[in-house]
Design a protein that fits this description.
Blueprint: H1 17-46, H2 54-63, H3 74-79, E1 98-101, H4 109-112, E2 121-124, E3 128-130, H5 134-137, E4 149-156, E5 160-168, H6 183-186, H7 189-201, E6 210-218, E7 221-229, E8 238-245, E9 249-257, H8 259-273
Antiparallel strand pairs: 1-2, 3-4, 4-5, 5-9, 6-7, 7-8, 8-9
């Protein structure tokens, strides 16, 4: 995960001709009235004449939103469905067969609230977006959540799953990070995984379940990288996680898989988290 990205006729049965005519006669004036209002609106805005009735114009303007349908952008519309990401995400510049995800300006509750900035990561083109449950999304507590929340969720066909989890920094540190400071300022490799491990697996993390741990520095930012073997995890026995921190939040990119999925796709799953 990279934190450097800146930034929805009714037909009557045998009712008779007379009844149908009555219904039509009631509907028709409404249609005419709407056309008349539309004409008045165009006239009012295209003319400087003082004879334009302000009340009539306002009556049309207020009604207008009820008749307008806002269409989402193509990528956003596709992202709401279980469609392979290769259909709407741009190709990754550094990983063949991978596609780059950067959330939009209103993609998640936390981004809409301005709690966090944007982030990016690469994932295989066959993976699909999954819906994050409202109770896990932080929607109910933004912009001042006290507990970690799930930003996005993706799933690969018979390969595993990916989730981005964000924790407010004040859960782990008493002060915001200053320029140049990273996750190593917040806590140690052991301390951070002990604090955030349960959010990754849905269960506690024991010391022997941390198969590998490493601190990596990329573009001046320190990342903590973990490989976990968690037989009692709700997300799967194998986990690979990358954790980094910004001035007010800690980001976790966690890839989870069953033992079988891990044995068949270890290299690809590891590459996602790096």
């Amino acid at each position: 995960m990279n934190l450097s990205a800146k930034p929805l006729h009714v037909q009557l049965k045998n009712a008779g001709t007379s009844r149908a005519c009555k219904i039509k006669s009631k509907v028709a004036p409404i249609q005419v009235q709407e056309r008349t209002k539309s004409t008045q609106l165009q006239s009012c805005f295209s003319s400087s004449s003082s004879s334009c009735n302000r009340r009539k114009a306002l009556g049309v303007v207020v009604a207008a939103p009820l008749l307008t349908t806002v269409r989402p952008k193509p990528a956003a519309a596709i992202a709401e469905k279980p469609v392979e990401v290769s259909n709407y995400l741009p190709s990754s510049s550094g990983k063949e067969g991978f596609y780059e995800f950067i959330p939009g300006d209103r993609e998640t509750p936390a981004i809409r609230a301005g709690t966090i900035g944007k982030y990016k990561f690469d994932l295989p083109g066959t993976w699909v977006r999954r819906t994050v449950a409202n109770i896990l999304s932080g929607n109910y507590c933004q912009p001042r959540c006290d507990e970690p929340w799930t930003e996005v969720l993706f799933q690969g066909p018979k390969q595993g799953s990916l989730q981005v989890i964000v924790s407010p920094l004040n859960k782990l540190s008493r002060r915001p990070l200053e320029k140049g400071e990273s996750i190593d300022t917040v806590g140690t490799l052991d301390g951070i995984i002990n604090a955030l491990g349960p959010n990754i697996t849905g269960n506690t993390i024991e010391e022997e379940e941390v198969a590998k741990k490493e601190a990596k520095k990329i573009n001046g930012i320190t990342y903590y990288w973990y490989e976990l073997d968690t037989p009692y995890a709700k997300t799967g026995q194998k986990q690979v996680a990358s954790i980094a921190a910004t001035e007010n939040a800690v980001f976790v990119l966690a890839v989870s898989a069953t033992d079988k999925q891990w044995n068949q796709n270890k290299d690809k799953l590891t590459e996602i988290a790096q």
